[in-house]
Design a protein that fits this description.
Layout (H helix, E strand, L loop, with lengths): L7 H32 L3 H11 L22
Helix pairs in contact: 1-2
Length: 75
Amino acid sequence: MTARPRSTAPELRLAETQAEQAEASEAARVRAARVVAARSSGVEDCRELLGMLGLHDAAGLPGPAPAPYVGPGSG
């Protein structure tokens, strides 16, 4: 006789709930990225805002816009 864990049903419900929450969260991030894109004044503004808000991945961008280099003697 093999012993089975008794808590499989609650663990399964927890996993399903977590998956549903992750899906809802990603959907909200995509909607937020669309709102930012719609309200931006241009491409660079949009990219910068998405990067600052951490929504670049939700918009399908590779990463936040790199900050311009400000080195010694510039500016």
